[in-house]
Amino acid sequence: LTAAATATAPAQADGGCKGNAPKIEALQHTFNDLHQSIWSLIHRKRPAADALVEDGETASKPEALPLWLLRELLAICCSVQALLLARRPSQQTLKEALRLADLGLIVGGPETEVSSVLFELTRGISQALSSESSQDEEEETGLPLKRFRAAQDQLVAAKPSIMPLVHRPAKEADRHNMPAFENFLLGPYTAQTPLELQAYWGGSSCLGQRWVAVEMDYWLDQGFELMQLRDFVSHCSHVEASDDKKAGLSGGGYLAQCALLDQIPELQDDIVMPDYCLCGGGTILRQMFFGPKCTVTPAHWDPYENIFCQVVGYKYLRLFPPSEAAKLYPRKENLQNNSSLDPADILEGERDGAYTAEQSPFKRFLEAEFVDMVLEPGDMLYLPKGWWHFVKSLSTSISLAFHFIERLQVEVGCSDTMVAGQGCKTPTIRGIRTRGRCIIEWVHTIHEDSKMNPSTPGLLEKDNSTCDA
């Protein structure tokens, strides 16, 4: 980094730039070679841990370096390469510099030692490219920029003409009848039952110059491809307007489980984190799902709680409780939290009678209990951990999932306030703990005179004036 900064420093005297040129060119070749070497090591088969212990020499070889260190080294390498390219402000070199800076953030993550350099590079380069890209869009489309973008927005947000039938809707609540935080905690969260909240959540925007890792289709073993967001949006628009079905389950490209908010912090200003995420205690993992229509996520379960927010487009979800796992035919080897149903697109399988055919090995699947729904823009779903879920995009769709890394253990106690005419007590929350650490503690303060007044509001009633948090 020091060498790169020295080489790219502004010349103080005439001819300084020419004097630095050989040094800069040598650095570029060095770091290009280093990039290729690190990239090949990251994708090479890792030696077993036992082999590293038994063979003292193996531990000193490059292929024995831990993956986290290789990722860190690649992020550093990308930052230097981007710095060297950014000093030549042509559109082509700036675009490549931005690709390298984004690659460093994707591979190294926001915690990398050079994240501040990478964030500054991506912000500055994307701003420099934005004005040129606006002119290019007008030239390519022949439309004024505002009309072109309005047409894209209308296409992406269009409601599908054909919607799947919802057989067994989950429990719903609209934004005017949302459960209070404590009611949600004692109700759906404690009971581990899904809850759909309609027209609740706010949306997001995109920075088209930035590069993202697009999953081409893991079911077809096509891996990932780096693509600019603007090009990926164009791909989604093309799929939306076409009647041709793409092979595989990813619609020809899918941003799945994408840490886009970490890679592009500017987007965080557009994000509203639901209060229900506070039930999670520890770290909250935010993942974005962005893809064209007909994108399918096969049935699987996750080991964490999920507040799933629909931002753009429409999505069909079918949820199965953990008790129905056997009827979903879990895989027996790798990815045992995934179903082995074939076809993996449940809607198509049911339509074609694939699960009822005489030779089908999945006949018990149709006996599984489930709830299903179609999420529209602004809807939010509480998806308990361990619940199997199948997801299919009915249009171009952007969703954001807030995952709870740690689940709070709720201790339900009773207040001294008696419920009038009943022989029970009002439930209250004594403490919410994660791994022995108290995260939130609510104490229901009851005055001496309230003991004699059976009409004192309880914690679950609308008037919580006697509760202190």
* Biggest sheet descriptor: 7 strands, mixed
Given the structure, what is the number of helices? 11
**Share of helix among residues?**
25-40%
Instruction: Write down the overall mean pLDDT.
Output: 74
Shape, per Cα inertia axes: globular
Q: Structural class per helix/strand content? A: alpha+beta
Could you tell me the radius of gyration in angstroms? 27 Å
Number of strands: 18
Distance between the termini: 49 Å
How are the strands ordered across the major sheet? 1-2-11-8-13-6-5
* Uncertain parts: 10-16, 49-55, 141-155, 411-469
Query: What is the beta-strand fraction?
Result: 15-25%
Architecture blueprint of SSEs:
Layout lengths: L1 H6 L8 H28 L5 H6 L12 H20 L4 H18 L6 H27 L3 H13 L14 E3 L6 H11 L3 E4 L12 E5 L8 E5 H13 L13 E4 L1 H4 L20 E8 L4 E5 L4 E8 L2 E6 L25 H6 L19 E5 L4 E4 L4 E6 L3 E8 L4 E10 L6 E10 L2 E4 L2 E2 L22 E2 L1
Parallel strand pairs: 1-2
Antiparallel strand pairs: 2-11, 3-4, 5-6, 6-13, 7-12, 8-11, 8-13, 9-10, 9-12, 14-15, 15-16, 17-18
Helix pairs in contact: 2-4, 4-5, 4-6, 5-6
Please supply descriptive tags for the structure shown above.
single chain, 469 residues, alpha+beta, seven-stranded mixed sheet, four-stranded antiparallel sheet, 11 helices, globular, disordered C terminus
